[in-house]
Structure formats: C-alpha cells, structure tokens
Design goal:
With about 260 residues, this protein is mainly α. It has one domain. It has helices spanning about 5-25, 40-55, 70-105, 125-140, 145-155, 165-210, 215-255, and strands at about 115, 120-125. About 30% of the residues are buried.
C-alpha cells in the first residue's frame, strides 16, 4: 500500500507526462489550437483535461519515478508523440486550405490574400472561408470529441516509455499529407471544370473575334461563375470533407486499436 507521499510523488509524475502529451497535441489541433483561441484559455483547457485524465491514465504510467535523465527522456518522447497526434489532425484540416487555394486560382481571386485565423498566416480568401467553416462544423458535429478520444487511445498506440517507431510515424504522416491534398483537389474539381470550360470558350471566341480582348471581358464572368458554383456546392463540399476527416481520424485511431 502506498503512503501519501509516494502517492503524491507518483501522481505529480503521471500528471507531468500526461500534461506534456495532451498539451503539445491540443496546442496544434484544429479548433482548440487555433491562433484565435487565447493562450490562457488553451492552457486552462489542457490543465483541466490533464487533471481529469490523470486518475484514468495512471495504469499506463511507470510504477516508479525514474532518475532525472530517464525522466527527461520520457518528457521528450511524450512531447514528440503529442506533436505527432496533433499534427495528424491538423494535416487533415489543411485539405480545406488546399481546396481554397485551388478555387481561388481557378476563380481569378488568387491575388486576394486575407488573414487566415486557423493558420495564423496570409492565405486565399476562399481558403480562409472554408477553414473557418470547417472549424465551426467540427464543434457543431462534436468531432472534437474524436480528437480528445484519439489522445486517450494514443496510449495504446504509443505506450509511455516505449521508443516510437519513427518509420511508421513518417509513413502515417506521408499518407495523411497525400490524402489531404487529394481531398482538397476533389473539393475543387467543380471549379476546375467550370474554369476549363470558360477558358475553352474564351479561346474559341478569341479565334472568332481577334479584335476583342476576351480575356479582359471574361474575368468578371469567371468570378461570377465561380461564386455561383461556390454557392451551389459549398454545403456538399463541407459534408464531403467532414466525412473524409472522420474516416481519416478513425483509421488513425484503429491503428492503435
């Protein structure tokens, strides 16, 4: 039976490891880790989650508190694992920014750069709109619960004290990046088709009427057609992305099951 002192020491040790993994992941995850969320709010959420999960995750922690060099290495590994889990969720979120950049390029709006709050950097106006909409839908559909559940399940995939398999981690990240780019391209396919048809029409018109500056005249038409297409397909595109996001995170969690 543990004494109170041993219980407190082991509890603080477990809390440090859990806080490191959860804190690193939640600072990167979409929604919670976005730049528009204040740092003190994110810190309080990580602290509260760590306090709640510490009694639950005590079984995954080492029984004895190791020496300082081993403890330092454990903290570093927990930081790497948390960064990996948070990055997986962020990569699937980047599909919307890829789609927005492709849509802006085919719509003639590529030069209209605005601040994207989800990435904390300049981005296309369509990408910012889709990214913010995606964050809203994540919370509206309770998919953020899956992200938190993924953090808990990560202890099955990456036990505390075990050295992560860097090859498998790199392979998962590579597959996630390729899938994210493919999802963004699939969302932008209607706009690519519309732009292609418009360019074909402009090319034919320029051959029939060489004296008319068709490219200058067609730019407002291109923007109007793109906005009309966006209004028609935005709901289907966001539902498609939500489905792919859930499938991608479910596949990631099943790897740990």
């Amino acid at each position: 039976m543990q004494s109170i002192e041993e219980f407190l020491v082991s509890g603080v040790f477990a809390f440090m490891l859990i806080f490191t993994r959860l804190g690193t992941a939640m600072m990167i995850m979409p929604g919670i880790g976005d730049s528009f969320v204040p740092n003190n709010i994110r810190l309080m959420m990580v602290l509260s989650m760590s306090f709640v999960l510490t009694p639950v995750m005590m079984g995954f922690m080492p029984e004895q508190v190791p020496a300082f060099p081993v403890l330092f290495s454990l903290i570093i590994m927990e930081f790497v694992i948390g960064f990996f889990v948070g990055s997986m969720a962020r990569i699937f979120m980047m599909a919307l920014d890829v789609a927005g950049m492709l849509i802006s390029t085919t719509s003639g709006l590529a030069n209209a750069q605005v601040f994207n709050p989800t990435l904390a950097t300049q981005g296309s106006i369509t990408g910012a709109f889709l990214s913010v909409t995606g964050v809203v839908l994540l919370f509206a559909t309770n998919l953020h619960h899956m992200l938190i559940y993924g953090l808990v399940e990560s202890y099955h995939m990456f036990p505390v004290g075990a050295v992560p398999d860097s090859g498998s981690m790199a392979q998962l990240i590579t597959r996630a990046i390729s899938s994210s780019f493919l999802i963004g391209f699939q969302i932008a396919i209607p706009f690519i088709v519309v732009a292609l048809m418009l360019y074909i029409g402009m090319g034919v018109l320029s051959r029939l009427m060489p004296q008319v500056q068709v490219f200058i005249l067609a730019l407002p038409v291109q923007i109007m057609l793109s906005l009309l297409t966006l209004s028609l397909v935005v709901s289907a595109a966001m539902l498609f992305w939500l489905t792919k996001f859930e499938e991608g995170m479910t596949f990631f969690l099943m790897q740990g099951g």
